[in-house]
Design the sequence.
């Protein structure tokens, strides 16, 4: 396998060509003229506390949020710093209707049953799209080169680019700016053992003509779980060049090496159903039963004879556990699921579960010391902006990304290495999907919302009622309809995958307040109810053909397709809505006078309703009923102190996450022992000059 992978094709866009932009014109640069930002970039200069005033999402231009009908939430650099967030996955926990997706092994950002990473949930619908400065982005994200994060909810959350039905994330990177010269050094330590240092340096070399910015990071990250850390060494550079009074070019480049420990191996108890003393190497595991039993009670044949060799290290020796013509090698295993119809292996209906924490402590990893993935990536973006008139502006952009996997993980490989690529405004992929192919995910729906500002923008609130549908989600048909219909079809089908729609309805509320320069805060609440609809669009076509064929052959069409009809009816009858309620709040107070001048105190809390856990079925019998996990409550606090020493602005900050050390089981299955991180202390310092 080649060591290098081209992550995306070279993507280019012609943005807003011949599109009028109703904004003030950019004056020709003179020594006395103020610096005017382009309509194609955002600034935090007019933000009030945590409340951002403008966004790039929605129109691809710097537009006031109050003028947009889109459901957009902006997390400013100020907010990200107060909470100690390092990437958009961390930020998703504090979004409006956004949640991190965990797979059955508790891996954050991974969809259940797939290898995909970097996924979050919008309104209960999964989203794999992340944008970076408007381009689809497939590399890891880190705060060292992040200016702000914008969450655009719903299929209409963006008026450009790629978007999922639930929404998407757009990360804005740090850019060079005319007129600014500054240096910031930052360090960070945490109680899990993580260490971090970052540099942010920007300078204007030629007034109003040429500026550059450099960012670097060294991150020796550690997680609560063994070998769950992320080692990152990276750098980013950005330059801005005023080619002419109305023409500007921006170039940004990022390169990084990252080593991730994917420690999501959950040890399951595969001994619970085994009856001691029943182990045997005989061909018949249970002689008391008629016929030859390949498996016994609580045991399973490791490998069939003549299939393939299976070498295993046992107590320092290498053994081949492939069965032979006279001996069968078995290991203990808890057999579950509807397929275990005869209950030979699990007659006591023992449900599979994880190893008790008394045997394997929480956060202990058994994946092995080599369970890491090393990768290197680089990416660049070039933007050319030109103002023809004060109302007509054009942006031409080009982006390229490349990812090289250096060392693959040795166990539970869950790392994405290859992707397709699409441009921002013009598709440059030579072969695009057939637009009539229902395999592609599509979204539709509506948002009814209102955004209100009080007290000259010091209090801003928004309310959205939505109905969003994600169409053509993959869904299994099963073998019963296929076996029944194929004899009646001109062209038998062999694929068991069909589609269904996933509809989410609910409400979202977001509130920002900064009544005085000392106070700032943000509150959000969201509810969603997700239900599956429109099952089996492909199977329905096959069903109609099969019934027509049955009628032509003189058969009863309903009787000839009875099992298929029953399968479809059972599926539809089993549809239930999954409701979710989430919310979070963050508030900060800054002392500006007296002995405590420069001290800021804040706190945050978030809530997520308990997750549904499926029933455990063994041989058609319910061993454990369906239930839900406990509601997830988490509180944190932070305190920072700002003080100027000569020309140096020093800031020291202490964050305490999950201050109550509340750890609950949140896995969506019995053996998925995912729990939130325990209490964590983070100490950070920054020096600006």
Sequence:
């Amino acid at each position: 396998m080649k060591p290098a992978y081209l992550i995306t094709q070279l993507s280019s866009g012609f943005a807003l060509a011949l599109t009028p932009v109703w904004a003030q014109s950019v004056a020709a640069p003179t020594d006395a003229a103020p610096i005017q930002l382009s309509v194609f970039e955002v600034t935090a200069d007019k933000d009030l506390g945590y409340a951002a005033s403008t966004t790039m999402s929605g129109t691809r231009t710097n537009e006031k949020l109050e003028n947009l009908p889109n459901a957009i939430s902006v997390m400013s650099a100020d907010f990200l710093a107060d909470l100690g967030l390092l990437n958009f996955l961390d930020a998703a926990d504090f979004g409006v209707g956004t949640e991190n997706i965990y797979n059955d092994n508790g891996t954050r950002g991974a969809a259940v049953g797939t290898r995909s990473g970097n996924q979050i949930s919008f309104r209960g619908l999964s989203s794999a799209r992340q944008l970076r400065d408007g381009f689809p982005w497939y590399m890891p994200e880190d705060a060292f080169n992040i200016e702000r994060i914008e969450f655009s909810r719903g299929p209409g959350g963006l008026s450009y680019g790629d978007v999922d039905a639930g929404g998407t994330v757009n990360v804005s990177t740090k850019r060079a700016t005319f007129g600014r010269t500054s240096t910031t050094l930052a360090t960070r330590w945490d109680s899990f053992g993580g260490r971090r240092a970052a540099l942010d340096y920007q300078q204007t070399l030629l007034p109003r003509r040429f500026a550059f910015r450099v960012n670097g990071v060294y991150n020796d990250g550690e997680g609560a779980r063994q070998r769950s850390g992320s080692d990152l060494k990276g750098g980013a550079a950005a330059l801005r060049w005023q080619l002419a009074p109305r023409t500007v070019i921006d170039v940004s480049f990022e390169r990084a090496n990252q080593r991730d420990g994917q420690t999501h191996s959950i040890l399951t108890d595969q001994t619970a159903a085994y009856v001691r003393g029943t182990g045997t190497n005989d061909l018949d595991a249970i002689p008391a039963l008629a016929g030859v039993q390949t498996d016994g009670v609580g045991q399973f044949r490791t490998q069939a004879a003549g299939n393939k060799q299976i070498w295993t290290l046992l107590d320092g020796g290498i053994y081949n556990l492939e069965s032979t013509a006279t001996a069968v090698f078995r290991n203990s295993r808890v057999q579950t699921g509807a397929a275990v119809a005869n209950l030979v292996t699990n007659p006591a209906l023992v449900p599979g579960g994880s190893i008790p924490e008394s045997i394997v402590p929480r956060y202990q990893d058994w994946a092995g010391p080599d369970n890491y993935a090393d990768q290197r990536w680089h990416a660049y973006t070039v933007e050319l902006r030109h103002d023809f008139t004060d109302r007509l502006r054009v942006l031409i952009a080009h982006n390229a990304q490349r990812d090289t996997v250096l060392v693959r993980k040795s166990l539970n490989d869950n790392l994405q290495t290859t992707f397709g690529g699409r441009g921002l405004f013009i598709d440059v992929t030579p072969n695009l999907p057939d637009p009539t192919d229902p395999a592609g995910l599509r979204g539709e729906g509506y948002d009814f919302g209102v955004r209100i500002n009080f007290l000259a923008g010091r209090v801003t609130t928004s309310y959205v009622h939505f109905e969003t549908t994600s169409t053509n989600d993959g869904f299994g048909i099963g073998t019963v309809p296929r076996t029944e219909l194929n004899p009646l079809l001109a062209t038998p089908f062999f694929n068991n995958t069909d589609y269904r729609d996933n509809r989410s309805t609910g409400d979202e509320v977001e509130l920002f307040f900064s009544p005085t320069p000392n106070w700032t805060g943000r509150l959000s609440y969201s509810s969603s109810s997700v239900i599956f609809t429109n099952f089996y669009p492909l199977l329905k076509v096959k069903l109609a053909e099969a019934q027509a064929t049955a009628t032509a052959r003189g058969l009863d069409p309903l009787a000839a397709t009875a099992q298929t009809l029953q399968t479809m009816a059972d599926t539809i009858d089993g549809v239930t809505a999954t409701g979710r309620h989430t919310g979070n709040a963050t508030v900060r107070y800054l002392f500006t006078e007296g002995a405590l001048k420069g001290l800021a105190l804040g706190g945050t809390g978030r809530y997520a309703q308990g997750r549904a856990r499926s029933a455990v079925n063994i041989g058609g019998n319910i061993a454990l009923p369906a239930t839900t996990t406990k509601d997830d409550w988490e509180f944190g606090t932070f305190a920072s102190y700002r003080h100027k020493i000569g020309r140096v602005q020093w800031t020291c900050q202490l964050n305490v996450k999950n201050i109550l050390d509340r750890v609950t089981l949140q896995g969506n299955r019995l053996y998925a022992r995912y729990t939130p991180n325990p209490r964590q202390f983070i100490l950070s310092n920054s020096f600006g000059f």
